[in-house]
Amino acid sequence: MISVRGVSKRFYTQSILNRVSFEVAKGKSFVVLGQSGVGKSVLLKILAKLIAPDQGEVRIDTRNIGMLFQKNALFDSLSVADNLEFPLRERTTLSRADRKKKALQFLDWVGLPNTGHQFPDELSGGMQKRLGIARALIVEPEVLFYDEPTAGLDPITSRVIAELMLRLQKEFGTTIVVVTSDVMRAYQLADHIGVLINKPEGATLSLAGSPAEARNSKDPAIQQFLQGLTHGPLTEHPEVLRPLPDALGECDIGRSITERFDVDYF
Amino acid sequence: MSIIFRDVYKAFGPKKILDGVSFTVDTGEIMFILGKSGMGKSVTLKNIVGLLRPDQGSVQVDTMTINELDEDGLEKARKICGMVFQHPALLDSLNVYQNVAFGLRGIPEERIRERVLECLKLVHLDESIFKRKPPEISYGMQKRVSLARTLAPGPRYLLFDEPTTGLDPITTNAVNELIFELSRKLKVTSVVVSHDMGCALRIADRILVLDQGKVLALGSVDEIKNNPDPLIRDFLMEAI
Question: What distance in Å separates residue B170's CA from the closest CA in chain A?
């Protein structure tokens, strides 16, 4: 379903990703773990074709792709129901009545009944995340990318959100890729786990296998990350973990969107 | 020297956030305040530095009754209470040295330099980083610099607002170790608002759990570990 081969990316003088490869089969979930600044979101944006790789290729068997951004990217000026109807209006030919019906149905599915008339800033962080998930799912994408879906949520809310993600994945048979630094969520969500290992020549991806295989991995870098050890191979090059200035990230994405925007695609 | 909350109530409109909260943080201890989002953890912290005032009840820090202070009084109180924000909140246009020196005024430049270096050393950094700007260093380093800036004026209380939320496990442990080390070395009293039971179990002297605006539990690490309340069991289950 998804095949990533030898993807590398630099921003100016800084190497971010170095020959990253992995595959995700239809209906499966792949979780990418890694430290802040290692390039997780860059990788996800390359998968979603928001950023072009310098080398390598990404093949996805469908054009029907959804993405949940870390900060949900909800429209503050639209009601909860209008947020859900927005992608239906853009991407489907459903009638107004059918759009309304579908929006209500999805609100129920994600556990937000009776909130359609409210606005996003009247919802708690966990509820906004549910709404973000509903909006990403409402066009029934075959592939869904999640950028740090539980960052900033308390652990109990995080677990509930991950349970929701799993339930909906089964329901729709969606193939999902999740990037996160939350190890507990990776164990909960993943069929397979990959860990991005920071190196001066750009991060490489170590395939750790299933959650059980990852726990028993002999790879010292994987173990360091999973156990949160402060000394080990991952902390040898702290200087390479530089978060990109927001402006750089955005201008790059902005450019790629204007160059590649395709109404069918998003 | 301690922090005393006496029967504090705080509501925003119809929403009760703190509904009769009382506790004491003893001198030199590390107190973790745990709870789900929206249960009043940050509101509690903001009451300590007078960014919010209780509707009823009183908040005492040292000999000062925070809720009765005027702006001048609060300014004095904030000098002894160092707040560490969730995000590093550094000034991107200033270099590391200027960021750490930001709160140091009215003392000779030479003394400022010594103090900046002293504080950077406390967080395991040194002068080689003086000229770097925040976007040029890793997020973990930015957290350290931000902590050094809070330490610079010499606070006797350190208040941490979700210091490890959203961090990867390696950075989480590094920040956690720093909180412990600094609290002990500088003999400051620390209040840590957090979701992270794992961190609390590792370094807290006592843990306070807030739920629905009330104190659900307050006790030592062992007491909390053995608490049968389902919410606390849920938090324990998520602790790595």
Answer: 4
